[in-house]
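In this supplementary section we document a worked example of the pipeline. Step one takes a protein sequence of length 389 as its only input; no multiple sequence alignment statistics are reported here. Step two produces a three-dimensional model, which step three serialises into structure tokens for compact storage. The input and output of this example are shown verbatim.
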Amino acid sequence: MHYNKLTYGILSSLILLSNSVIAAEYLVDADLSPTLRYDDNVELREDKEGSFSTEITPTLFLSRATEDSFLGLDAGYRIEKFTSLEELDRQDPFLLFSSSATHERSEFGLDAEYSQRAQRTIAAEDTGDFASDATVTTRSIAPRYQYQLSARDFLYTNLSYQDRSYDDNEFLDNETYVITGGWRRNFTERLTGGLALTYIDYEAEAIDRTSEYDSYNLNVTSTYRLSELWSFAGQVGYRTLDSENSNINGFTVKDTSSGSLFSLSAIYEGYLNNISIEISKALNPSGEGVVNEQESISVDWQRQIASRLDFGFNASFQKTTSASDFDNTDRDYMTFSPSLRWRVEENITLNLGYQFRKQDEKGDTVQKAESNMVFLTLNYDWGGLLYSR
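The serialised model returned by step three reads:
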């Protein structure tokens, strides 16, 4: 059933875009980007285990673009090999699809994904369990549509479906449906604003229990271009959350909660410096069969210190707590990573960096762990093959 939903959406987009008779450009490209790293606590546990590792991601890019449409496909493998923790070696496939089409007053787009990867690689946004090597398979499809009512007013709707399944009974397979409808107005060349209403349905199922969460969010949205250097964007709103959790014995717990949600960002784009700052508070479904509330702040800074040399760092802090009384999740997670990027040639770049991670769990289990990692990544851009007709 999940594959049929994904396939139907992709085929619909292909049919729509194939009707264009406008001259098109075709691109075939590929990427490898090998990374060498050493992490002294790969699984972010109190009892540290370190290892050298190599990661390569051979990827094939295919795209077709016209004046009013785009069609793109990325396919590849994430291959990870460890010297001291061979049981963590992996080969995970992924497939990403993206399309868009523009007409006189309307725009359509569709994105889809199929991927497999280790659960520990998405633990920060999922369960917080970096020690698990369970495979999580993700399937998603997200169509979107926008219609221009007038010179300044737009109506839009975004839909998405995501399915996550795990090969470990410790986690719950889950599905998330999101529907958003909104209005946006361009008040001036620099200022836009609007309203958005979102409905989220999250369902999780295991052998011994099931859970379902329904959320309604109403947001005020805005973007503002202060100058050629500074721009701001954000949305602030209110949400409600109804949950129902049942076990195999028929015992059911229901809960209702409410609160605020927001996402605020500031971007500076200068000649030598690029800075972005974002703070947010959002609901996030988990493979533990619950919906959590995550508050986060992230900072990214890049500075050119020579014609071919850049320095940068990114730092983030994330606090995850339960969104309902059914669960008592409480954990903090932070990262800090400075790096140097050297453009050896126009198409060859070396990226040398360090990353510090720390997690503090204070829920059912109390655990503190941190790790230090150094890495070196080689990027080679061969430019691809471009064909027009």
